[in-house]
Each structure stands twice: as structure tokens, then as C-alpha cells.
Amino acid sequence: MSETDRLRKTSQPMWKQLIRLSNEKGASLQGQLRRALVTAILDGHIPHHRPLPSSRELARQLGVARNTVVHAYQHLMDEGYLIAEERRGYFVNIELVNSRKSRAPKPVESVADRPNWDNRFKVRPSAQRNLGAFLRDWRDFEYPFTAGQTDPALFPINEWRECCRQSLAVQAISEWMPDSVDHDDPLLLEQIQNRVLPPRGLWVNTDQILVTMGAQNALYLLARLLLSPGDTVGFEDPGYPDARNIMELRNCHVQPLSVDGDGLVIDDRVNDCSVVYCTPSHQSPTTATLSLERRQELLRRAAAHDILVIEDDYESELNFAGTPTPALKSLDGNDRVIYVGSLSKTLAPGLRLGYMVGPPELISEARALRRLMFRHPPTNNQNAVAHFLALGHHDALVHRLLQSYRARWEAMDAALQKYLPESSLAPAFGGSAFWVRLPAGVSADEVERQAGEIGILVVSGDTYFAQPDPAHSFLRLGYSSIPSEKIEPGIEKLAGLIRALEVQ
Length: 504
Known about the structure:
globular, four-stranded antiparallel beta sheet, alpha/beta
């Protein structure tokens, strides 16, 4: 037996320990094999003087097709992880491994104490009242009544892949690969200008549009540009917690403004505001739509008292009946409204692509500030989304979402009327959630906690209010990520929990 064959035979158990393949969804066997080999190489688990098993032998040990191993080996050779020696086999490229080793000197020894980090922070975002971190794990719940997520079953995988392939064409790569400094993808700007905004009654030039990392990034940029410590910001109460927290980080005075069935209440409290933030299309969280009369009154007061208005056009596309009310920005005749939009609620929240619309001088400054933060959103994502819009996939997706969400809306409405008839406040015919009042004396936080223990994900409404108040006992029940057939049994189970807490 040759030395090479002896080494291969004695190392067989090592390969079974190093490489563990499974049939998990979304990961090919070849991809798993390549990842396992790269990890083993970079972690130093494969001696550079020992040959790897032949493709035939490793395939036999792992129970996979030989071509799977051949392609994995070839890929790792192309990337420099392996080198082939004639008549000896494949070996780890020790030069690549050595180039990855840290050459940093040892830490300087010191007897000084660590910094007192609690005293160093100028702001503490983690201390703010915000929505629960458990929302990240919504897939683990049997009944995920959460808003802000989309049902993966509704995602147009083939259409998205087509757009990704177009963005990976040689010419496309050469266009989005360089650092764009502070510029956005021209095709995406064109599609937002011509495809996304006109249905909202907005016709603008591309120098009035800035692409952002979601709507929340746009709100942060605007707060940094337009607000100083001590400024008064009018804010819907209840309202979107993240937007409120962004304003509070600027040490602004947040002026709560009431909300009713017609949306934001426009009264004299508005007059003293420097900026008013509102969600006119589907108010977050109550889903109320701001009436046309109130939109006009808000604009009149903004002009009379030199107020700027930030319009977060939340879920404007999700309108199931009738003609959508025009965007507040479309009624603005003197550039007092800054419009913020997003593709998160229709395409995919994880893409983090939004946009703001405003006068050219504002967009110019926002672009300069964005450059200091992260220069620009990833241009490969921008390009793929641009193709998705240009090919009509987004319009078709919105049409499918409306059909699916309408069915879920009707299922939610029927279940709430059946099991919690005195608590349900039916939203405007649109959006992706219900705002549900709990019986007197029942804590929304306690419902959220106990519901989670039995597989029901609900969101307490307490965080949406400017100040904690036991009288504000609401749940926000989303239906965008839960299958229709799960809605009634989930609501029935939730109602039983609420009834039990009511009698305690």
C-alpha cells in the first residue's frame, strides 16, 4: 500500500466528523460540502501535507454522487483553497491558509480598569419603549398575529430570480459594482418616479427622490436634518413607536395628538409644532384613514404656522375597496410635506428599500447626510428592485396581495365578531392589522406574555401610546403572515385566554 493510500485510509473517520450533510431546505449538497471544506481548511483541521480523499472515495464515504464532490473540489481549486498535484491528489493551499492567520501583536498589558460604559453613552436607545424583540421569531408561533411581516408563500420567487439574473448580467454588474458615492440606481429612480408615485397623485423629478434603507432610515435622516433639541414635534397618539423614539433621540418635545375614526385630530395643539409626523393612509396602529377635510385643514395650519409635515405613507397600497385617498403630498402646494414611502410591506421587509420625496434642496442635504452614514443603499439590490418594478412584477404582486389580504381581513373580522364582539374595532377596509380593545382590567402586556406561552403571537398596544396608561388596553393583531385557515382557531384560543384573565 502506498503512503498516499495509507494516509487516506487512516483519515476516513476524520472526514465523517468534519463533513456533515443534510437535506435541509435551501442548501444544496454541493453547497454544504463546499462550506464544510472551507471551514475545515480555514480552521486548520486539514493538514496541508495530507491529500484529501479522491472524489470517488469521498463520495462513497458521504453517500453522495461523485459529481457533487468533483464540482466542489473544482470550485475550491478555482478559488485557491486547494491545489492539485499530479498522481498525488488534492492538497490544502498552505499559502492561502497562512495569509489568513492573524499577525496582530499581543494585547498591551494594563492594570487599569475597563471604561465605565454606562457613563460614556450620550444616548441609550435600548432603554426606549419599543416593540418586543421576540417579533424576530414570529415563525416559531403556531398563530403569528403580527404585522410588518409578509407570508413567504406569497413571495414571487420566480419573478424575483428573473430580476436578480438581470442584475447579474455582465453589463449590469459593471454598472452597480463601483462605489456610487451618493448616487442611486438611475433605473430605480425612474421607476419610482413613473410607476410608484403617480398612483399616489405625485409627479416629481428624480432630483426630488432619495432612495433609503427603508422608511425608518428616511425618518432618521429627516429628524437629523430638520429638528433641534427642544423643538416640538406633533405625533399621533397612539403612533408608530420607532418614529417616536427617533424624535426623542433628538431631545425633542413630542406633543401627543389624538387619533379617532377619521385619523389625526387637527386642533390648536398642532399650531405650536415645528414638525408634524403622521400616517394618513392607514394610521399606525389604528388603521384609520385621515379624512380629506382634515388633510386640507392640516395643510392650512402648516402654511399659517410655518410647520413641516412628514407623511409616512404606511400601507397605502393595501386598500381593498374604493378609490384610495390621494397622498397628503399631492395636495401640498408649497413644499411643506415630505413624503416617505417603502416597498417593505409589499415586496419584502428584508430588502430594506424605501424612499423620500421632497424639494430638491432637502433631498440634496439628505443625500449628503446619507453619504456620511452608509453612502448609499446596496446598488445590486436597487438594480434588482428596479427590474422588478419595470417588468410589472410589483403591480402584479400588489394585486395578488390584495386578494389574499382581503380574504384574511374577512376571516379576521368574522372571527373577532364571533369570539370578541365587544372588543373588535373593525379597521378601514385595508391595511394588514386590526386594533382591538381589551375588556376593562385586562392588561395587554399580560395577554401578550401568556398568549406567547401557548403559541399565539400578539402585540401589546401599550408601546404605541406616548405614555403608559392602564386605560390604554389594546392589541394589534396582524394578519399578513398567518394563513387564513389558522385565523379562526387562533382567535378562538386567544379569546379564551382573554376571558380567563377577565374573571381573575
